[in-house]
Amino acid sequence: MQIYLPIAEVSVNAFLLLGIGGLVGILSGLFGVGGGFLITPLLFFAGIPPAVAVATSANQIVASSVSAVLAHIRRRTVDFRMGTVLLLGGLAGSACGVVVFNYMRSLGQIDLFVSLCYVVFLGAIGGLMFVESLRALRRSRRPGALPKRRKHGLVHTLPLKMKFRISGLYISAIPPIVVGFSVGVLSAVMGVGGGFIMVPAMIYLLGMPTKVVIGTSLFQIIFVTAFTTLLHATTNHTVDMALAVLLLVGGVVGAQFGSRIGARMRAEQLRILLALLVLAVCFKLGLDLVLTPTEIYSLDPEGIG
For the chain, which residues make up each domain, given as ranges? Predict the structure, then answer.
């Protein structure tokens, strides 16, 4: 069943979009990630223009993150003070990211720019995840090995220190602002929530407890991606609500299956599978960049005057 997407200006099979949303929903329930870093490349493969895929993916992340953060609030695993500091950096980063996005779009290079960003970040993150997962798998087979204690780093020596009671930290506000800013830029340019970078940064850089990290990350992601969506909708007009609804419906159903499957697998196995999936998507995007396209020439309606 073909459906016309008015903003993307393409006709796509509705069941294909539901399937993409369902697949990302399964991944979300299976691996505990928002899936924004995978849903955007999958939309590229389905023929959705990158500008629309980025803006609409950010919109989809807002809806999926709201329900998740409510559960964390009930369990009191959200550090609102840390989330607010991250949010300040995230909003500034999002505004800067949209400026960069609009500039690259005015040059006619936004498709290449977004694809290159995905190849670089997915390749780096997927590679690091794969190596870390292999190490964790080896450690799990040696129960007698004790983990090394982390020493205080630069984050504990910087000025402007604040006390974050729920996280049990007394650190400088500068690193959280920098982390939030970086994630805000990524959200605007790549259409991701940034959790795949923020969560490791909060654990290993800021030293936050794992049980508080997810809820605090989601709290920040909601506002940053909502702000990003608003900026894209008002400046670029690239948010396709018909596409977002189909992705949401598929995602809600897929998440239920993913959570059931994930409960039957070991954490180390799940991380290795996710790393391999990320690397596979990175490889496909990289391959598309170097192979000769089927259509050498294309028309840009915005460039006709």
Answer: 10-141+152-291
